[in-house]
Amino acid sequence: MCFAERFMSVLSPELVWKQDVPLPASELVSLYASVGWTAYSEAPERLAAAVRNSTYVGTAWEDGRLIGLVRGVSDDVSIAFLQDLLVRPEHRRRGVGRTLMQAFMERFEHVRQKALFTEEGPAQLRFYERAGFTNTKHLRKTRLNCFVRYEGVELD
After folding, report:
1. pTM of the entire predicted model
2. Do residues 62 and 12 touch, judged by C-beta distance below 8 A?
3. In whole angstroms, how large is the CA radius of gyration of the chain?
4. pLDDT exceeds 60 at position 4
5. Between 156 and 59, whose confidence is greater?
6. In this structure, is residue 16 part of a structural domain?
């Protein structure tokens, strides 16, 4: 039994943990829309393909409704990219996000590099720092740069 299965049962008996199962597009769209990620929710077919093509997908369910998701993209050797971690706003601060993160970390514990992109929100930054991630803008001993390129988006 993985950490998520053990922890979900402690959080609430109504919470169900599933890994790498087919997900209804309507549940995905509803979850992504609930957190305001409209770039995903406005293109349901692209969202479904992105999730389906991920290396790993862990989900949290309550009463048959998708309430949280973590997904990773990886070569399963040297890099694991945490692509999405989201929890419906009304289910936050109950340990669901922490459990999803732990499941991701367990799945990719053998992988040397783990990376993610996130917004500048203080809650997001604290969450990922508590999970053991380091913001590259704070690095002093090891100089590390992260470069990104988004098609069709002005980054300045």
Report:
1. 0.85
2. yes
3. 16
4. no
5. 59
6. yes
Q: Report the C-alpha dihedral over residues 30, 49, 102, 2, rounded to 10 degrees.
A: 100
Q: How many CB atoms lie within 10 A of CB 32?
A: 23
Q: How far apart are CA 53 and CA 16, in angstroms?
A: 23
The answer to whether residue 92 is domain-embedded is yes
Instruction: Let me know if residue 58 belongs to a domain.
Output: yes
Indicate which CATH number applies to the domain containing 26: 3.40.630.30
The whole domain housing 109 covers 3-138
Chain centroid offset of residue 66 CA: 14
Residue 110: pLDDT over 90: yes
Backbone φ/ψ region at 147: left (φ over 0), alpha (ψ -120 to 50), beta: beta
Provide the sign of the torsion angle of the four alpha carbons 9, 12, 14, 19, taken in this order: negative
Residue 46 in contact with residue 61, Cβ under 8 Å? no
Compute CA distances 143 → 129, 135, 139, whole Å.
18, 12, 6
Is residue 88 domain-resident?
yes
- Label residue 100 by pLDDT band (50, 70, 90): very high
Domains identified in the chain, total number: 1
pLDDT at residue 87, as a whole number: 95
